[in-house]
Amino acid sequence: MYFHYGTSETEYLKAKDRVLGDVIEKIGHIDRETDTDLFSSVVHHIIGQQISTKAQATIWARMKEQFGEVTPESIAASDTGALQSLGMTFRKAGYIKDFAEKVKCGEFALQEISRLPDDEAILALASLKGIGVWTAEMILLFCLQRPDIFSFDDLAIQRGLRMVYHHRKIDRRLFEKYRRRFSPYCSVASLYLWAVAGGALPDLKDHAPKKGITL
């Protein structure tokens, strides 16, 4: 399943920002996979922190092979050492085990998250061990498909903004200007900024100052 958006979102962004509109035209529609199961999405994001996408995929494949369906019950019934043996750190295994136990016993009302507004959902997810604000924002975007997520802590988003708008640095004030411009479709804008940061338009370069050069 892919993040759902269409012409209403892209036409709105094109009307609000000619430069981003040109990027949207050049790249075309972006298919970005989502994970509709909230529990497995949280686990998947904990696994993926500070490791490569390939390593994350390898560990996730092992987990699915080990447990079949990744559920609170299956994870809670396992021990931390068994989780670690799949290739993750002991700390991450502990985070995942703690999360599963809290969901299983009802201490953390996971299904309530989908009914909360963005800011409250982010705060609730970030209260979990191993989940920070950035991870919570990614869960809202790639699992719950919230339409207006724009993460200041995402380095690729900042890189995309520098490349598209020729900025040398993205501070909070400048970031918030773009958030207001792209809202209520910041999530779609994020997809295109990620694509640019990943090299989708080779003629666009990062304008960040070279290391060792001070402004």
List the helices and strands and how they pair.
Elements: H1 7-16, H2 18-27, H3 38-48, H4 53-67, H5 72-76, H6 80-84, H7 90-105, H8 118-126, H9 133-142, H10 155-165, H11 172-182, H12 186-197
Helix pairs in contact: 1-2, 2-12, 3-7, 3-9, 8-9, 10-12
Features:
215 residues; mainly alpha
Account of the 3D structure:
The mean pLDDT is 95. Helix 3 (38-48) runs antiparallel to helix 7, helix 3 (38-48) packs across helix 9 (133-142) and helix 8 packs across helix 9 (133-142). The chain has helices spanning 7-16, 18-27, 38-48, 53-67, 72-76, 80-84, 90-105, 118-126, 133-142, 155-165, 172-182, 186-197. The protein starts with 6 loop residues before the first helix and ends in an 18-residue tail after the last helix. The radius of gyration is 19 Å and the shape is elongated. The protein is mainly α.
